[in-house]
Amino acid sequence: MRSREYDLDFRDRATRVRAWGVGLLALGALLWGWCAVLLVTPYSVDEKPDDDYPRECASRLFTDRGTANEGLHSGDVCGDERDWPEALAVLGLSVPVSLVGVALFTTGSLSRRMSAHSEAMRELDKYTDAPRA
Hints:
By secondary structure, the protein is mainly alpha-helical. It has helices spanning about 5-40, 80, 85-130; strands at about 45, 55. Strands 1-2 form a two-stranded antiparallel sheet. Helix 1 (about 5-40) packs antiparallel against helix 3. It is rod-shaped. The model has no long low-confidence stretch (mean pLDDT about 80).
């Protein structure tokens, strides 16, 4: 394979790696958004199956001894509907996804930049090595 063809193939691979990084970063952002929705939005709970009047519950994050932090032991069904471990699991899953996304994005971007730099250096060498007319 000639040098130029190899360089273009290398850049294509670097672009694909960077695109995977962007995709994983977007997935990490969606997981953060899902965690925020679980913690910030109010919700309703059916006390009985097919309940016509579900119980309205305050958000998990913005409640101060409200409906979301009590439990079934005190007769409240809101506390068990949205558990903290679910939100923290979503948040915990977003960390490795985001770290891998950052690593892939950085590797792809750096590979493209280094390839462009080496091509520019080859072009400069070609001009400096050319006979002076």
